[in-house]
Amino acid sequence: MSTPDRKRISVSTSALIVLIGVAGSGKSTFAHGHFLRTEILSSDHFRGLVSDDEADQDATADAFSALHFVLAQRLKRGKLCVVDATNVTAPYRAKLLDLARLYGRQAVAIVFETPEEICIKRAGARLERVVNAAVIREQKGKLDGQSDEDLLAEGFQTVLRVMPDDRVEIQRM
């Protein structure tokens, strides 16, 4: 099935995929390499939509309100949805999973296990939105220790963990 450097995951064409990982872990790059632009619901993009600034953390509540609205509409229509946000704690994931349950959709967690030092380097090198090391360490602390069993208990049907060098194949069913 999967080897250490090649991982395959099968997802319904109407699934909710939740990307989980700290800033700089590769979530957005992964999303853009595996999914259609219209399938990706990025918290940064929604911050930009509501405030004209993707880095405006004061716009986060409004951004997620808009993201949740669009997510509900897409799930209702049976469209694949990929939520690109840090999603490092269960409370942030709860509304996403509630919507997947409401519309009877498969919920898939893809957890990015990129080493902290790589995330710090990547996030510090960004031109558009630098995330400082303390924020990344805080996010990593929240994410560490969350097992596959924890995520399955939240309501995900499938959990895939990826490292930076993994080659991932998404098979749509």
Layout of strands and helices, then pairs:
Layout: E1 6-11, E2 16-20, H1 27-34, E3 40-42, H2 43-51, H3 60-76, E4 81-84, H4 90-102, E5 107-112, H5 116-125, H6 133-143, H7 148-154, E6 158-162, E7 167-172
Parallel strand pairs: 1-7, 2-4, 2-5, 3-4, 5-6
Structure description:
There is one protein chain. This protein is an alpha/beta fold and 173 residues long. It has helices at residues 27-34, 43-51, 60-76, 90-102, 116-125, 133-143, 148-154; strands at 6-11, 16-20, 40-42, 81-84, 107-112, 158-162, 167-172. The chain is built from seven helices and seven strands; from the N terminus they run E-E-H-E-H-H-E-H-E-H-H-H-E-E. The chain is globular and about 40 Å long. The relative contact order is 0.25.
CATH architecture title: 3-Layer(aba) Sandwich
Show unreliable segments: none
- Strand segment count: 7
Spatial strand arrangement across the major sheet: 3-4-2-5-6
Mean pLDDT: 92
Supply the number of structural domains. Answer: 1
The CATH class: Alpha Beta
Q: Which fold does the CATH topology refer to?
A: Rossmann fold
Oligomer: single chain
What's the tally of helices? 7
Strand percentage? 15-25%
Main sheet: strands, sense, barrel = 5 strands, parallel
Key traits:
173 residues; alpha/beta; Rossmann fold; five-stranded parallel β-sheet; two-stranded parallel sheet; 7 helices
